[in-house]
Amino acid sequence: MNGKTLLLGQTLGFAGDPFSDGTGAARHDAHGGVLIENGRIAALGDGAGLRAAHPDAQVIDHGRALISAGFVDAHAHYPQTAIIASWGKRLIDWLNTYTFPEEARFSDPAHAADIAGRYLDLILANGTTTVASYCTIHPASVDALFAAAQERGMRLAAGKTCMDRNAPDTLRDSAQSAYDDSKALLEKWHGKGRLSYVITPRFSPTSTPGQLSALGALWAERPDCLMQTHLSEQVDEIAWVKSLYPQARDYLDTYEAHGLLGAGGLYGHAIHLEPRERARLAEVGAALVHCPTSNTFIGSGLFDMAGLVAEGQRIGLATDTGGGSSFSMLRTMAAAYEIAQLRGHALHPAQLWWLATAGSARALRMQDRIGNLAPGMEADLAVIDLASTPAIAQRAARAGDLWEALFPTIMMGDDRAIAATYVAGRPIPRTNA
Ligand code: GUN
Ligand code: ZN
C-alpha cells in the first residue's frame, strides 16, 4: 500500500519478556494507533494524537478490537494440511499411516501448489503471518511454499525435509542428494525478499549418520540459515533413537555429533529431555519449540515450560500441524495454558501472547523484524475481536482489565476472532479461508 495508513484500536506490544520482566513488560493502549508506511510501522502511540499529527493518512478504525503483531508459528508441516485431525495413532504409527502417504503425493507439483496456497490462506485467516514449515523430500514442495508466500508478501521460513531411511521408497533421498538439493534450494530462496531457507533433517530415526553429517556440513557452510528438526517427542521414539545410534550419549547427541547443534537450531517438542541435553541446549542458546496441541493429540507428554524458562532456554510456540490439531495460535495458546496447569503452573495471558508473537519471533531470530509492535518493525499484524462469539462476549463483558478481556479469546477463540490480518501493511482479503 502506498502512502500512510493509520490503524486505530486497542494496541498490545511488549517492551520486554513477561517471563523475566513481569507482566509490566506489556504495552497496552486502550485508544492506540499504528501508523504504517512502506510496509513498516512508522509510529505507535495514542490514536487521536497520531491522527492529528498525520492528517494525510488513510484511517482504518478497528474500534475496540485489539491490534497485535501477527502470530508467529515456529514449527508446522504444511504438507499435512489435508490430514489434520486423523484419528487414533501415536507418533510412529501416525507417521506411517497418515503422514507418509500424504507427503508422497507432493511429488506432484500441482498438488504441492494447491496445498501450499490453501495452507497459507488458512493461517492468515487465523492471524498467523509467519511460519517455520517443513516441506516434503521433494524440492518442488519447497518451491511451491516459497512461491505461495512470495505471492502473499509473507515472511516465511521453510526447508526440504530430508530422510534417507525408515521411510517409504518414494520418500527417501540420500545423504548426497539431501545435501545437493538443500544447497540448491538454499541458494535459490534464502534471503530472497522475506524468505528464509531452513536446513531440515526430519529427525534422527529417518536419517543415517551420513545424512546428518552432510546436513551438518551444509549448516557449517551456511550458518546464516536456521536448522529445524524434532527432539524427544515420545518415549518410544527416544528408545528407537538410542537403538539406531548406540554410541550416542542421548537423543540430542545424535545431532550434536553431526554438527546439528547450534544457536540457530530449532528443536521441536523437546519434552522428555535429560539433564545433559537441557544444559547443552541452554549453553548454545538453541530454541525449543513447544507444540502443545500436538503433544496432547498424539499423546506425547507435558512440556516443562516453567522449568525450561527458569533455565533461561529460548522457547517458541507452534501448532505442529497436522500432528497438532489446529491452525490457530489462539487454540495453541489455550493448549499451552492447559499443559502448564497440568504441571502446576498458570501461564499469564501476557506470557501466552508473548510466546505466540515476540517469543516465537525470537526463536526464529527474527525479533528485530516481526513479532512486536514498535516503530521500524514490519507491519505484519493481527486485529483481534475480543467479543467474537456470544460465549466470549458475555465473559469479556465482565472483564476488569485487558488480561481478563483477552483470556476468554485465548481459551475459546478461533478464526472468528481475527477481525483482520495485515501482511507488510497490506490487508488480507478474507475470501479464501
Ligand atoms: N517427528 C518426525 N516427523 C514428525 C512429524 O511430521 N510430526 C510430528 N509431530 N513429529 C514428528
Ligand atoms: Zn513437527
UniProtKB/TrEMBL annotation:
NCBIfam families: guan_deamin (TIGR02967), PRK09228.1 (NF006679). Belongs to the metallo-dependent hydrolases superfamily. ATZ/TRZ family. The keyword Hydrolase applies. It comes from Lutimaribacter pacificus. Pathway: Purine metabolism; guanine degradation; xanthine from guanine: step 1/1. One of its GO terms (biological process) is guanine catabolic process. This is Guanine deaminase. Catalyzes the hydrolytic deamination of guanine, producing xanthine and ammonia. Its EC number is 3.5.4.3. It catalyses: guanine + H2O + H(+) = xanthine + NH4(+). It is an enzyme of class 3 (hydrolase). Residues 67-426 form the Amidohydrolase-related domain. It comes from the Bacteria. Its cofactor is Zn(2+). Binds 1 zinc ion per subunit. InterPro entries: Amidohydro-rel, Guanine_deaminase, Metal-dep_hydrolase_composite, Metal_Hydrolase, Metallo-dep_hydrolases, MQNX/HUTI_composite_N. Keywords: Hydrolase, Metal-binding, Zinc. GO terms for cellular component: cytosol. Residues 32-57 form the Aminodeoxyfutalosine deaminase/Imidazolonepropionase-like composite domain. GO terms for molecular function: guanine deaminase activity; zinc ion binding.
